[in-house]
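Page 47, continued from p. 46.
Same chain as before, 161 aa.
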Amino acid sequence: MDSDTFVYTTYIRTTPEELWQALTDPELTRRYWGVAFETTWTPGASMVWDEGGRRTVDADQVVLEAVPGRRLSYTWHTFTPAWAAAVRLDQEVYERLARERRSRVTFVIEPSGDTVKLTVTHGHLEPDGIIKGLIGEGWPALISSLKSLLETGEELPEPPR
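Result:
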């Protein structure tokens, strides 16, 4: 766990266009992630994270790259006390997490026969940081739910916390 990057790859029976829509459409992201993004999906645009009515707004939450059907990258959200309380995070753990540098996530979408290869790279992590451990569990569950939604029309139930 000494790397500052987490990488997760999967194959989804869908099209690049449908996968892009699932990564950017608030109605779809809310279904498998519980988050809706308010943004224009253009490089430099701000991003507001809406999780069940809890809005996280920060000038450093921005779209880094957006090439429809191919590549999407943005900075990770700001950790707020409201977010920490909602996910039942211990105060000491929250304080450590809030001091970590801002990370970023990149989705690379590549056609692969009748499927699409999705590679999620979450980088700029503190090598021994809290966020690295959280996303190490979170991304596989999240991407599995995304895959299920695109392939069956039904997202997976949220895993217990």
